């Protein structure tokens, strides 16, 4: 599938075929493809909770405006953005720095510089921490949707949910923001897909403040 077809063909589908499962190896391929998304310093501050069990999806749906697609889709992902994913001592920060040194991109002597930059760019305030976690995880989430489409899967992103209730229900630690839920499956063929939505034009997107 050409990227153009993926970009124009992806839709937020409202109805999933509850009888058509997403095999585990296909989900793995989708996630691994999406994990090629870029991130600041390659810190990759994203994680996923994978819900397949009907009862678990119902538990999520009750905190997600009762949107039926949450439980109708064979898989619904809780996408997590790690606001602590830049802090010294965090396992993936340590892994990342080790990899940077191994690759020759940085030397051990640059560790203090690295920690200082991460602190000022990503940790200086709560809003910086949320922005850091969510912008990087947003790229990952978009990559998940494109990867899914390229593999013949359909998706639906949702931010219509109660973040604190979802956090409590699934015991999600406080250092994660939850930018979105993502249902994954196959569009239900007895339903009609809504026509493509409007998009801003090139001229509407480009701005200048001078
Ligand atoms: C972050 C995000 C949150 C969204 N939340 C919801 C939601 O809670 N419920 C819903 O029905 N649609 C939701 N949508 C779907 C959008 O309405 C949809 O993507 C948009 O109208 C464009 O349609 P398309 O994706 O089919 O092109 C969300 C989309 C995004 C990217």
How would you explain this protein's 3D organization?
- This protein has 210 residues and is an alpha+beta fold.
- The chain has a single domain (3-205), classed as NADH Oxidase (3-Layer(aba) Sandwich).
- It has nine helices and four strands.
- The termini are far apart.
- Helices cover 43% and strands 14% of the residues.
- The protein has helices spanning 3-9, 24-34, 54-61, 69-72, 91-102, 111-122, 126-150, 163-169, 202-205, and strands spanning 46-51, 75-82, 154-158, 176-185.
- The longest helix is centred in the middle third of the chain and has 25 residues, at 126-150.
- The site of flavin mononucleotide (FMN) has 9 residues, from β3.
- Residues 11-12, 67, 157-160, 180, 197 line the site of flavin mononucleotide.
**How are the strands of the biggest sheet laid out side by side?**
1-2-4-3
SSE series: HHEHHEHHHEHEH
Largest sheet: 4 strands, antiparallel
If helices are DSSP runs of H or I spanning 4 or more residues, what is the number of helices? 9
- CATH superfamily (homologous) name: NADH Oxidase
Oligomer: single chain
- Structurally, the number of domains stands at 1
Average of pLDDT: 97
Broad structural category: alpha+beta
Distance between the termini: 41 Å
């Amino acid at each position: 599938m050409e990227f153009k077809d993926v970009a124009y063909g992806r839709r937020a589908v409202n109805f999933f075929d509850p009888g058509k499962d997403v095999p585990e190896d296909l989900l793995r391929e989708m996630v691994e493809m999406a994990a090629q998304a870029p991130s600041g310093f390659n810190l990759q501050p994203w994680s996923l909770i994978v819900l397949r069990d009907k009862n678990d999806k119902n538990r999520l749906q009750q905190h997600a405006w009762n949107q039926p697609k949450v439980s109708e889709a064979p898989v619904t992902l809780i996408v997590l953005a790690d606001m602590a994913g830049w802090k010294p001592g965090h396992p993936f920060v340590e892994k990342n720095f080790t990899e940077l040194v191994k690759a020759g991109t940085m030397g051990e002597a640059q560790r203090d510089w690295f920690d200082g930059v991460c602190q000022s760019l990503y940790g200086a305030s709560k809003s910086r921490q949320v922005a850091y976690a969510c912008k990087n995880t947003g790229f990952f989430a978009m990559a998940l949707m494109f990867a899914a489409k390229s593999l013949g899967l359909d998706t639906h992103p949702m931010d219509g949910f109660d973040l604190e209730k979802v956090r409590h229900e699934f015991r999600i630690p406080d250092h994660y923001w939850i930018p979105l839920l993502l249902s994954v499956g196959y569009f239900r063929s007895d339903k009609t897909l809504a026509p493509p939505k409007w998009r801003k034009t090139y001229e509407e997107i480009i701005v200048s403040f001078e």
